[in-house]
Each structure stands twice: as C-alpha cells, then as structure tokens.
Amino acid sequence: MDTESRERKLMTALTDLRPQQVVPGAPILLVDDEQAILDGLRRQLRRKFTVHTAAGGAEALALLESEPVAVVVSDMRMPQMSGATFLSTVRALYPDVVRILLTGQADTQAAIAAVNEGQIYRFLTKPCPPDVLLEEIGSAVELNRLVTVERELLSTTLRRTVEALTTTLSLAQPLAFARALRMARVVTELAQALELDDPWEVEVTAMLAQLGAVTLPSTVLEKLDSGRPLDEDERSMAARVPAVSRDLVAVIPRLETVAAAIGWQTARYDGRGSAAGVPAGEDLPLAARMLRLATDFETGLSQRAALQDTINALRADAGAYDPRLLDALIGCHELTELEAPPREIRVHELEEGMVVFDDILTTEGVLLIGRGTVVKDSLIQRLENYSDQGRASAVLRVTG
After folding, report:
1. For residue 356, what are the contacts with CB-CB under 8 A and spacing of at least 6?
2. Among the four given CATH numbers 3.90.105.10, 3.40.50.300, 3.40.50.410, 3.40.50.720, the one describing domain 340-400
3. Is 345 helix (H, G, I), strand (E, B) or coil?
4. pTM of whole model > 0.85?
C-alpha cells in the first residue's frame, strides 16, 4: 500500500474521533496574516495544545525547520504565499505533518488547489465553532501520531530485517559477506561524495546484493573473491546471483525499490547489451548505478596489483558507468591518504568495530571470516570458539 492510500485509510478510520482523544500538549502551528485571528485561535486551543503561530508561509516554514509540529492550520489568502502553496510545500518537506485549511474565502477554485496541491486533511470555513475546530485538530493530531508510529515501526523492522539477513550471510558465506562489505564501503564513499541526505537505501542495496551468493559453491566464491577467471558453468552460476538476490529481497515490504536496483546491478549506464525493458542512463536507479561501479571496482582491485590500474580500466569502459559516479570514485581514491598499517592482536583482544585485515581460515583450510569484515560480537564468539578448540589461529591482523 502506498503512502497516500495508507493515509486515506487512516483518515477514514479517524472520522468518528471525539475531542477527548486529543493528545495533551501536542504541538500545532497556526498560520494567518491577521494577528487578531491568531490571538483568538490561540486562546481557544492553548489548553489542549502547544500552540505556535506564524504570520505567513515564509515565517511558518522557518519555524518548521526548528520546531516539531503535528498539525498545521493555515489560512488561504495571505500575502506573498497562498495557503495552497504553503501547504503544498509543507507536504513536500514534512509529509507526516497533517494539514488543515481554515479560511473565510468561499473560493471553490482555491479550495480545489489546496486539496490537490497540499492534500489537506480538512477544509474548514470561518467562523468555525470552537468545538468543531477542537475536534478536527484533535483528529488530525491522532492521525499524525498513527502515521509517525507506523513509519518508525516500519523503519525499525526494516533495519532489523536487513541486519538479520546480513548476519546470516556472514555465517553461511563469509566470503560473500566480506565482499558485500567492501562494496558497501565503496557505495558509502560515493554517497558521501554526492552528499546524499539519506544514503541508507543505497547502502542496504549493496549489502543485500550478495544474498544470492548462498547458491554458489565455495570454489566459485573463492574465484570471484580473488578475481580469477570462471569457466562457462561458473559464469552461469554467478550471473544468476543478482536475480536470486532480487527475488529474496522483493518479498520484504518497503524494499521493492532496493530489489529492483539489485536486479539491475549489471546494467550499463549507456544501455549497451541490456535486455528490453531494462532502464539506462538516469532512468537506471542510482543504487543500481552505484552497485555496478562498486562491483567492478572491487573486482578490479582483486585482479590488479595497483589501484591506478583498476581506475584506468574503469575509465577505459566509461560507458558502463554514470560519469558523475565515476568522477566521484576517482576523486575519493586519488585523494585517499595512506591508511594506518594493520596490527597483530590475539583473538581475545578483538573488539567490535575493528576490521579484519586478512582472510581467516580454519586449520582445515575452510574460510571463517573474509578480509574487510567489520567485527561484531557474534563474530568474536565464533572466532573464540574455533581458537579455543585449536581449529583456528589465536593471532590475527586488524585495522581500526
């Protein structure tokens, strides 16, 4: 269900809300260019709400930057910025804030504009009886509470689901997990270079793109990790990983765009060689563009001794990549300072947040932890168990 459908459903459910359901002290914002009207509304509402006021749209938007607000009640006809324009801006910047239009203007076209542009919750006319105004604002406050709780619950659930999936991958296929971590770091670098406001989705795309690697034999994963060439059967197996990863992620609510980006991670920016229906250029999701570049960069580093050789190879096939991302990646690594050398510690000295420098193998030669893995508590316990049993070295190299 999309956001607008969910909001309409919540609105329908709240139709019969009564004034006693008002959340005490909930912050609301009243916007009107007539001070007398603001003073009158404040007197009516201040016992039930924390009331903020603004004399126009610009002042109200400035206040919203610093004050949390559940509901905005705006007049329609104001100088410089109409109520319709103001509420439309609020909707774009603060979608969880519930919007009410309160106006004395019987202007049908203005009302239609406010409804369409600002997607307001209620349209009320002046003078509005105090009990009606209190009831409608109370219902709006409750709607805001429900929408906010739902969003926070979904966010927490999604993050924990992603953490569970990646932790499972780290235990089932540590080589694939380590590779995913290295690609995620490249994606994070790109997100920082582009100054993305919320990089979570692109970072999650990079982490979950390797889920399908659980289908690969360890010999194939080892070849991929070391950059060694695959035979025809192995290439077919590896080529199916994006689709398997996509299908695993697609069943998780709210990760549909992540799943799509994972499925298109091998698509070229210039569209060359892509199947019908696969987007190209700016139509290709940013996360897919980042993932393509990060994957090829990581593969190049495993095949070539020098960083500059990998960058030159990427430049030689520039049509495969978003030029803005390629420039950002080159800029990040041309300006990279020398990292601190790894240090040797014992397993029992491991701490969360350290980064494993070398692949860690059991005494039987089975990979336990891939290089580049960030140490977590579950990993420490695993290494301690193997070390205590004499099945893995008690000494390892880490950074961080």
Report:
1. 178, 369, 370, 371, 372, 373, 375, 396, 397, 398
2. 3.90.105.10
3. strand
4. no
CA quadruple 297, 301, 307, 312: dihedral sign: negative
**CATH of the domain spanning 3-150:** 3.40.50.2300
- Phi, psi at 121, each rounded to 5°: -80, -40
Place of tokens 């202007």: 107
Measured torsion, CA atoms of residues 240, 241, 247, 248, in degrees rounded to the nearest 10: 150
Name residue 77's amino acid.
R
Residues 6+ apart with CB under 8 A from 230: 220, 223, 224, 238
CA distance 376 to 201: 22
If phi over 0 gives left and psi between -120 and 50 gives alpha, with beta otherwise, what is residue 227? Answer: left
Give me the CATH topology for the region 173-336.
Answer: Hypothetical protein af1432 (1.10.3210)
* Torsion, Cα of 271, 273, 275, 277 (10° steps): 10
For β-strands 343-346 and 355-356, DSSP reports them as unpaired
**Each residue's pLDDT tens digit, 126-135:** 788 888 888 8
Cis peptide before 127 (omega within 30 of 0): yes
Tokens (6 digits) for 288: 């897919």
Q: If you write DSSP's letter for every residue of 176-193 in order, what string do you get?
A: HHHHHHHHHHHHHHHHHH
Domain boundaries defined on the chain: 3-150, 173-336, 340-400
Are 178 and 369 a contacting pair, CB within 8 Å? yes
pLDDT digits (tens, 9 = 90+) for 243-260: 999 999 998 888 899 999
User: Which of 267, 274, 247, 269 lies closest to 258, judged by CA?
Assistant: 247
> Residues 289-310: pLDDT tens digits?
999 999 999 888 877 657 887 8
Give the whole-angstrom CA distance, residue 33 versus residue 35: 6
